[in-house]
Amino acid sequence: MIRYLLGRLASLIISLIVASLVIFFVIEIIPGDPAAYMLGVGAQPDTLAALRAELGLDVSKPERYLRWVSGMLQGDFGISYTYRSPVSEMILERMWVSLPLALYALILSTLIAFPAGIYAASRRGKTGDFAVMGLSQLGVAIPNFWFAMLLVLAFAINLRLFASGGFPGWDKGFWVGMHALTLPAISLALPQAAILARIMRSALIDMLGEDFVRTARAKGLSRAQALRRHALRNALIPVLTIIGLQFSFLLAGAIVIEKVFYLPGLGRLIFQSISSRDLIVVESTVMLLVFVVIMVNFAVDIAYAAIDPRLRRRR
Amino acid sequence: MTLLTVEKLCVSIGGASILDQVSFDVAPGEILGLIGESGSGKSVTALSIMGLPPQGAKTKGSIKLAGEDILTARERRLCQLRGQAMGMVFQEPMTALNPLLPIGAQVAETILVHERVSKAEALERASQTLARVGLPPATFPLSRYPHELSGGQRQRVGIAIAIAMRPKLLIADEPTTALDVTTQAQVLDLLKGLVDELQMGMVMITHDLAVISTMAKRLAVMQSGRIVETAATEELLRKRRHPYSEALFAASTHKVELPPPPAAQRTLLEARDVLCAYPLPRQGMLTPRRALRAVDGVTFTLARGERLGLVGESGCGKSTLSRALLGLEPLQSGSIMLNGAPVRPNAADTQWRRTIQAVFQDPYGGFNPRWRVRSLISEPFHLLEEPPSGAAREDAVVDALTAVGLCAADADKYIHEFSGGQRQRIAIARALIIQPELILFDEAVSALDVSVRAQILDLLAELCRKRALSYLFISHDLAVVRSVTDRVMVMQAGKIVEQGATEQVFSAPQHECTRNLLASAPKLQIKNSAFQ
Q1: B105 and B37 share one domain
Q2: Residues B152, B183: contact at Cβ < 8 Å?
Q3: CA–CA separation, B160 vs B126, rounded Å?
């Protein structure tokens, strides 16, 4: 088990280093000088040089990379070119919206998908299965922003149960914040739940055909017991993989939903900084997202090992 | 009084009849053998008795277990009966256990489903049951997982699961088919002992007459969903009334007439000190990695026209050696020379590759399902410098197909249109088409039914007569190797422990491993066969 964890940890660190190099050099080759962009067309050469020095753009590339990485390790992500405020604060502020939103959506989607998938698998080929699969087909097909607008129409404009957008901040209280995130979370969660339910169903159906489920039935377990005790845990492995991927998507890919609900999240931050050539913000945010994604994958790996004894012994 | 009475059992799925008027009975303490070839309905019979017929199956007739009808019982009652009154052991020990649960929990579950006992007590009883089937807790703690056990040990766990509640009826569906001969002998002994001790009735399903003739008092022969003959084993060994039983017995004791080996010729294949090793996982952070020597210093030669056999238990290194001979496995040391050219893995030169072709075990997985037979069998042509084209190519395809007993029209079909035996013929045709010097048969008949196997072996003998074939025949089945080889090698733990003329090795084995293999292999002794 320890060997397995060390192995995963080593690959995690290597992935982070490679990712930071890739991000740094990709951003480097994007045309456009941030200093020139900030000062406008008529800037004096010496002002430009001064600003470049201030932004740390005047040293060699390897040095800038090392400065950037060592800064991040100390929690210093640099100063935003356009806002002139520390990037770490900006990201942190946005993270407090995006992370809870992603988690909220993930929990909702899992809560919907698990029962739906299990129900469909246990009623395979019957009306219940067709109903669940039909709904999930619909869930996969509907764009989430359109669904979000429907939710706003129904619950914010007609029923007036929720605000149609914006985020009041967590200092107004936990439930106030959660309330504001509910509609966005639902609109993010539904398509994900639809996909997850289908994966859950097919993984379960695969497992129900396995020999060990037949052994369980021969022991005297009912269909439902055999499904719950033997098929479900084995089916969790493919399902966990998808959950890991979905979380990463929810964290950074919520930009359209953030737009619809006017939420100050990470997706919008990246969008704005790209359009204003605020490369330091882009670099740092992307790096942070990569970090989170890699950490989520690590957590999924640990979960695999917790479920499957065969993995604990290997490497 | 009988324990199990099956009367006029009919099972059909979507109008197609699977079982037709199947009737038999089993007394307590009795072993009934249900024999037949694949697709004859043996497993469906077993699953119907367990109340687990295939989905969508319609059943008629009656199955009475101690007077209670299984077919009309409610699902709730069936759940009580399964595991408690009747247990079942399955064929595939590798997949019949849940890979995520320790063995103790899996055995204890049988008890927990049926009795209101504490988990600790159930585990205690599971531990006793496991000890009874030969897995004492001192060496096999309850916390072991299935992947930490061998096939035979897993099958013992499967048996423990089935007998944990001391059922009155035990159904064993090919319980030893996936096991080595020595393991098979142990598991058969165990089953026999349990039947005596617990006075269980047992239905044992198998396609292997030799195995069942040592186990069962009575045999029922099944053919396409029907029981064609039921008789005491002794009686059936003396005389078969039904032509199908006769054919089945004849196929099981089939003797191939191999043409005499050609006079000594030049060496075709020469393996010298071949070593193939796999690194094992590290024991600690700093300890050096140890290696599993799958093939450990193997040296042998095969002369042109020779038919050489290789036998050994699973895991002895047969498959690794066969891959090495085909140039699919890197050698750590040693050399393999084929027709004077060195065999090198991943070497692009086709010089030596065109001199060797192979036929593998699985007749289902070895073909691309989207190719026609013509493309499948003419694929080795790419090894030739000037592959035939046009009419010559077509002639070669037809030639190869007719040589293996198929016809020219089969070239346009897809592989799913053929039965297992026909597919194996196509595999042989594919190996023959470029007329290689040497053919390697790796368990080539192991997945086939006895009658089909007999036909394929006859085909092999016929090809030997016509083409002076040289081959290496790898198998765990001693009887088969004995009938189609002139010389044989016995492999154990990566080493060749004995080799010599086939008849001599089999009749006067020198090494202990050979003797064990021969002693464990069940023999079918037909007395006074109608054919003799």
Answers
A1: yes
A2: yes
A3: 8
Give residue-wise pLDDT tens across range A99-155.
999 999 999 999 999 999 999 999 988 899 999 999 999 999 988 889 999 999 999
pLDDT in tens, A159-213: 888 888 888 888 888 899 899 999 999 999 999 999 999 999 999 999 999 999 9
Residue B530 has pLDDT above 60, yes or no: no
Question: Which amino acid, residue B391?
Answer: A
Question: How many interchain CB pairs under 8 A, A with B?
Answer: 82
Rounded to 10 deg, the angle between the A127-141 and A87-122 helix axes is 160
Domain limits, chain A = 2-59, 91-313
Strands B333-338 and B267-279 turn out to be antiparallel
Inform me whether the pLDDT recorded for B241 exceeds 70: yes
Domain tally, chain B: 2
Does residue B258 belong to any structural domain of this protein?
A: no
**Å between A235 CA and nearest CA of chain B:** 11
Which of A212, A223, A225, A234 to mutate to test binding with chain B, by most B CBs within 10 Å of its CB? A212
Q: Is A212's CB within 8 Å of B81's CB?
A: no
Residue A171 in contact with partner chain B when CB distance is under 8 A: no
How near does any CA of chain B get to the CA of A24, in Å? 35
Q: Is residue B237 part of a domain?
A: yes
Alpha-helical segments (H) within B87-180: 103-114, 119-132, 151-163
Element (H, E) at B11: strand B4-13
Q: What is the fold, at CATH topology level, of the domain defined by A91-313? A: MetI-like fold (1.10.3720)
What mean pLDDT do residues A228-252 have?
Answer: 90
The stretch B399-423 carries a mean pLDDT of: 89
Residue B443 domain-assigned?
Answer: yes
Give the CATH number of the domain where residue B298 resides: 3.40.50.300
Q: By the CB < 8 Å criterion, does A126 face chain B?
A: no
- CB contact, 8 Å: A210 with chain B? yes
Whether B380 and B474 share a structural domain: yes
In this prediction the ipTM stands at: 0.81
